[in-house]
Structures are given as C-alpha cells and as structure tokens.
C-alpha cells in the first residue's frame, strides 16, 4: 500500500473527479461509488459517477442516484469526454478494466490520476494508487477505511454511512458469509454511529419485492431448481423466455442462487441465466470449495472463493452439459466440504 499522503496531496485542491464501478453494479459497487461521491463532493470536488450499465431499482434510494450517468444511456463520446477531463479517476469494486466494458479502454488511456479501491483477486496494473485488500469483505469497507486514513472520518454523514453500510451488508450476505470479520462488525458499528439506519437500508434492499419477482421465485424453485446430491451440487437453469414471462428486471434474480446453496448438504450452487444468446453464470460455494476456480477455468470469469461468476457464448443446454462434465473432477472436494459443516 502506498503512502496515503500521495492521495491526500491529489485531493488537496478542488478537482474534476470521475468515479466508475463494475458492469451491472450491485450494492457494493454502487454503495462505494455514491459513498465516495458524497464524500468527495463535501471536499469541494466536481464529481461524476459513471456506471457501465443499469442497476436494480432497489439501489435507487442511495443519495446521488439521480446524478449517476449510465454509460449505455449516454453518448459514448460524452462519457469519453468526462473520463478524459478528469483529474482523478476512482475505479471501485473491480480489479480488471474488462469489468467496465467499453469504459475500460477509455479509463486506461485517460491522463487522470487513477485510484483503484477493491477487494478482488489479481488486480490489473492500471492505477496510480491502490487501496486494495482481498481480506476486506466489501469495497465499501475499504472506502470507510480510506476516508478514515485520509483523516476525514468526521465528514462521514448519514448518507455516506448508509451507502457504505449497504455494500458491506450485501457482500457479507447479510453478515452471514465467512468474510464477516470482527473488522466488518467494527466498521458497521461506526457507520451506525454516523447515522446509518441499518433497518431502513435492509428494508430498501431486501424487502422491496415486486409481486412478479416473488411469483418468479416460486416458479424457479418449483420448476428450475435441480439437485445433484451425488455431487453436492444444486443449480438453476433459466431461459430468457421464462425471465420475460415474469417481466424479470435487472436485479430480480439476485440472491436466487443462494436458495440452491441453502439446501442441506450442498457445497456448490449455480445460476445459469440465458441473456442475449449468452449464458451468465453465478456460482456460490461453502467452506474452501473454490467457486472462482470453476468460474475462471470454464466460464471466462472469476471472483471470490465463495462467490464467483462468468459468462459463455453457448446455449443454455450446452452450458449445463459443460457444468456437469466438470463435476467428476471435483467430486471428492465437493464431498469433503459438505462433511466439514
Ligand atoms: P454475481 O454472481 O453476483 O454476478 O457475481 C459474484 C462475484 O463473482 C462478483 O462479485 C465478482 O467478483 C465475480 N464475477 C461475476 N461475474 C464475473 C465475470 O464475468 N468476470 C469476473 N472476473 N468475475 C465475475
Ligand atoms: Mn464487492
């Protein structure tokens, strides 16, 4: 980790700042982006948040949401102009520029000072300042620590605290995953002290379902969920047609894969979702089973040990066939992890 003074000096005078985060932003991505945006605005900077794509409505309550520029809804040349004009670019919650689609090459060639705050493995060398730790449960946890390290803890208000709380809450699976460390609890305690209303945040994120979303969940649990007890694996395979039937929106399938993982004795759970002729894969695992290894080796992706994802340009049937074909190699590991619980 570099000297924090380097970043303090960069932030000493009002600057033009662009903040960006990964494709299909989740609560950690948007929470860290808007948490930092609200903080940097307080320091007197001019801040533009650009997301590569749309994000679910259950994140729209965050302060500053109405100012966010969504790349796919703007002119690419405007986005490029904002990125090029930035004195400082914050890249939050992703470690490789390919995670921000076309914005990636714009950020790479931009002249601004680049700051990468992230908790994913194997960071690409594109930034001038890294605040990076795979020990952190969430980028929002690192953003809290970064603001404190910059000497600005006193600037964290209710709005900033709620954005950051949201990302930590969701990236720890509601404080249930093994990444829920003592430090996580200490940081969220501070955020509550700063005014975060934890009950309001969790209501906004977890309990704002549309009826269609719940009906779809019922359908998917009864029709799409497959269990392979011999491998300790459970998965959902969902077609585009099924998603359309329930008017599924961005974010509506978030969390679905956890139902497969919640089955007793399951070590690895998958969600295979057809989208634009491709298949998006979400994997979740328990214990030491490396979901990210499966995502990296077979599905052009990566992620964390217990939560990973990727995508393939295959049909849904072919993807499931591929998934099933890799299980024998992992059979003993899948079995072993389920026995540890
Ligand atoms: P999700 O299943 O929620 O889409 O993604 C879970 C985690 O897997 C993310 O936090 C991210 O670390 C990783 N991930 C998801 N999709 C991709 C992908 O296409 N490429 C890489 N490298 N990681 C991914
Ligand atoms: Mn994250």
Description:
- This protein is an alpha/beta fold and 341 residues long.
- The protein folds into 2 domains: 4-206, inorganic pyrophosphatase (n-terminal core) (Alpha-Beta Complex), CATH 3.90.1640; 211-340, Roll (Diaminopimelate Epimerase, Chain A, domain 1).
- It has helices spanning 4-10, 27-42, 76-85, 103-109, 139-149, 158-171, 182-193, 198-206, 211-224, 240-245, 256-261, 291-298, 316-340, and strands at residues 16-21, 46-51, 69-70, 88-92, 113-118, 129-132, 225-228, 233-238, 268-275, 278-285, 302-303, 307-312.
- Strands 3-2-1-4-5-6 form a 6-stranded parallel sheet, sandwiched between helices. Strands 7-8-9-10-12-11 form a 6-stranded mixed sheet.
- Helix 4 (103-109) links the parallel strand 4 (88-92) and strand 5 (113-118).
- Helix 2 (27-42) runs parallel beside helix 5 (139-149), helix 2 runs antiparallel to helix 6 and helix 6 (158-171) crosses helix 8.
- The longest helix is centred in the C-terminal third of the chain and has 25 residues, at 316-340.
- It is globular, with a radius of gyration of 20 Å.
- The model has no long low-confidence stretch (mean pLDDT 96).
- Bound molecules: guanosine-5'-monophosphate and manganese (II) ion.
- Guanosine-5'-monophosphate binds next to strand 11 and strand 12.
Outline of this structure?
This protein has 341 residues and is an alpha/beta fold. Helices cover 43% and strands 18% of the residues.
Keywords for this structure?
341 residues, binds guanosine-5'-monophosphate, six-stranded parallel sheet, six-stranded mixed sheet, Diaminopimelate Epimerase, Chain A, domain 1, 2 domains, 13 helices, binds manganese (II) ion, inorganic pyrophosphatase (n-terminal core), alpha/beta
């Amino acid at each position: 980790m570099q000297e924090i003074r380097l970043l303090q000096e960069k932030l000493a005078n009002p600057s033009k700042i662009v903040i960006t985060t990964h494709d299909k932003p989740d609560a950690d991505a948007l929470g860290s982006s808007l948490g930092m945006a609200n903080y940097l605005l307080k320091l007197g900077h001019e801040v533009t948040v650009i997301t590569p794509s749309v994000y679910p409505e259950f994140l729209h309550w965050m302060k500053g949401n109405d100012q966010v520029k969504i790349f796919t809804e703007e002119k690419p040349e405007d986005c490029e102009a904002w990125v090029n004009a930035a004195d400082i670019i914050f890249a939050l919650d992703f470690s490789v520029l390919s995670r921000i689609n076309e914005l990636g090459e714009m950020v790479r060639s931009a002249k601004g000072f680049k700051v990468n705050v992230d908790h994913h493995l194997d960071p690409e060398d594109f930034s001038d300042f890294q605040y990076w730790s795979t020990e952190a449960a969430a980028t929002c946890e690192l953003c809290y620590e970064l603001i404190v390290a910059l000497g600005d803890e006193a600037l964290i208000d209710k709005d900033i605290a709620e954005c950051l709380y949201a990302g930590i809450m969701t990236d720890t699976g509601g404080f249930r995953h093994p990444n829920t460390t003592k430090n996580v609890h200490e940081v969220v305690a501070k955020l509550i002290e700063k005014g975060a209303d934890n009950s309001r945040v969790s209501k906004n994120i977890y309990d704002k379902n549309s009826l269609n979303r719940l009906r779809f969940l019922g359908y998917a649990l009864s029709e799409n969920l497959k269990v392979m007890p011999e491998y300790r694996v459970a998965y959902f395979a969902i077609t585009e047609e099924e998603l359309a039937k329930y008017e599924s929106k961005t974010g509506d399938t978030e969390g679905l894969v956890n139902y497969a993982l919640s089955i007793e004795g399951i070590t690895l759970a998958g969600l295979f979702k057809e989208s634009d002729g491709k298949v998006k894969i979400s994997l979740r695992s328990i214990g030491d089973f490396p979901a990210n290894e499966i995502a990296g080796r077979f599905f052009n992706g990566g992620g964390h040990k217990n939560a990973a994802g990727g995508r393939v340009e295959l049909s849904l049937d072919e993807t499931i066939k591929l998934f099933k074909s890799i299980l024998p190699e992992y059979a003993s590991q899948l079995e072993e992890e389920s026995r540890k619980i």
